[in-house]
Amino acid sequence: MTSISILGPSGLPLVDLSGERAWKQFTKGDLVASMQWIDLQASNPGYDEEGPVPCMAIYHAHRRIDKTAYVIPQRAAFKYIGSDGKPTLLFHNAVALAVLEMGFGPTDRAAQRRMLDIFYECLPELFRMPRDQPDALEVARQIMGVEVTAKVNGKTMHQDVL
Prior knowledge:
Blueprint lengths: L21 E7 L2 E8 L1 H4 L9 E8 L8 E5 L15 H13 L7 H20 L18 E6 L2 E7 L1
Antiparallel strand pairs: 1-2, 2-3, 3-4, 5-6
Helix pairs in contact: 2-3
């Protein structure tokens, strides 16, 4: 069975949330937190880490085209939980921003509570997530177009993708 992906400018899928790509996945009501490796530089060239980085992607369980995901890279997770294990001020700001970013209203207390719970319960798992993506999850760049190879006496002289 093949999956359909939207490819980015580099020929890689933009994002494939959860499923086989997830290390772990958690659900809280209509919210899902997927621990997975995402190539953030593919969609944000200003991001300074190359390749897939461990992230927590929070998204609506009933995916709709007008909704988005809220992504926290592992290296930024320390900003949300202090060394004492308690939420920081940025934690509460991120919860409020994630609620708005995912299309919930600013006064939706139930959505805020679910988001708060998923942040608090899942951030420790993000800290435990392995830094390096398993080789089995490596996504090969898809070649789009026609591959042309010119050979002379069996030796490749030129190869190009049109």
